[in-house]
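hiii so um. not sure if this is the right channel but i have a protein structure encoded as tokens and i wanna go backwards to a sequence. like what aa goes where. can anyone help
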């Protein structure tokens, strides 16, 4: 995973003071040269516009921390963004928690404050920010968000890999039991069962948020549970690891995320067109083994009926058919 490098803010009292006095900051913001991230904190418009939506939200989180009189504890989607747990949608507010017994539930200028759970462990410090630990963050997402939005983070946690920026001298690898222990601290059974339902279908073999989102749609619409990332061979050797497998039905599923054809860590020195050709050859080899291969993209997840239609057309049954 690539760690997000936080660019420095421009402020009236920063090293840019000669060039950007408070008045000049306002003028350059009005002219579109600067973007005001939060009161007194700016970025060049070119830097801001080059950022993805989640990176812009990450900067808003950073700005809240910079302006706070004491470091807030970021939670839920905000904590997930800091620690690298995947999200489907960029949150509309910066999420923080306050100690039990203090007032929570207030929204102020884009910041949501809620009460923390009695008995939760002390926050972690990651990349200089205080956050709820990973197990509590995944628990809170499962509690507050629908399955399609909470499963990607839970799947990531179940990969049992150390998250970049994790502190030393703490447990760094998490299992379902850690999340269950965290869920046991919730005040009522309805909340605990909600978290458990996400845990029951979480799978650390999921390789991306898109694959997790795909599986959530399958689960919610009654499709058979797929096997993930199983290896396939023919007389030429290893073909690959299809994202989804329904072996009894001779159906394989592949989610095609944009990064597969754009990010260098996936291209591995190849051009996008070369990757497309290799994918086609791999698919031909799978079809030669007697499997039907169905593929889908982000747009098919944004309108779930499109994915449902593709799976039905491939011959995959569901309870809703």
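sure thing!! here u go:
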């Amino acid at each position: 995973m690539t760690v997000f490098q936080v660019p420095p803010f421009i402020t009236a009292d920063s090293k840019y003071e000669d060039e950007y006095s408070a008045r000049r900051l306002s003028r350059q913001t009005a002219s579109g040269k600067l973007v005001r991230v939060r009161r007194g904190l700016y970025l060049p418009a070119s830097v801001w516009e080059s950022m993805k939506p989640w990176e812009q939200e990450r900067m808003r989180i950073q700005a809240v921390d910079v302006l706070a009189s004491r470091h807030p504890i970021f939670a839920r989607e905000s904590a997930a963004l800091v620690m690298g747990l995947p999200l489907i949608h960029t949150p509309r507010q910066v999420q923080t928690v306050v100690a039990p017994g203090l007032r929570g539930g207030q929204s102020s200028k884009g910041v949501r404050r809620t009460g923390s759970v009695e008995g939760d462990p002390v926050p972690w410090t990651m990349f200089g920010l205080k956050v709820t630990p990973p197990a509590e963050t995944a628990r809170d997402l499962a509690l507050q968000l629908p399955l399609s939005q909470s499963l990607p983070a839970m799947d990531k946690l179940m990969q049992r890999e150390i998250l970049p920026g994790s502190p030393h001298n703490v447990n760094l690898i998490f299992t379902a039991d850690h999340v269950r222990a965290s869920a046991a601290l919730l005040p009522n059974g309805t909340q605990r069962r909600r978290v458990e339902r996400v845990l029951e279908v979480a799978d650390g073999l999921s390789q991306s948020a898109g694959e997790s989102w795909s599986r959530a749609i399958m689960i919610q619409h009654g499709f058979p549970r797929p096997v993930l990332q199983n290896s396939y061979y023919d007389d030429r050797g290893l073909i690959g690891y299809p994202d989804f497998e329904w072996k009894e039905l001779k159906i394989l599923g592949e989610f095609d995320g944009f990064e597969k054809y754009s990010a260098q860590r996936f291209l591995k020195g190849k051009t996008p067109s070369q990757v497309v050709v290799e994918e086609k050859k791999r698919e031909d080899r799978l079809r030669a083994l007697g499997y039907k291969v169905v593929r889908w993209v982000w747009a098919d997840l944004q309108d779930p009926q499109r994915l449902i239609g593709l799976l039905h057309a491939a011959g995959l049954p569901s309870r809703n058919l």
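oh and The domain at 223-313 is CATH 3.40.960.10 (Endonuclease; Chain A).
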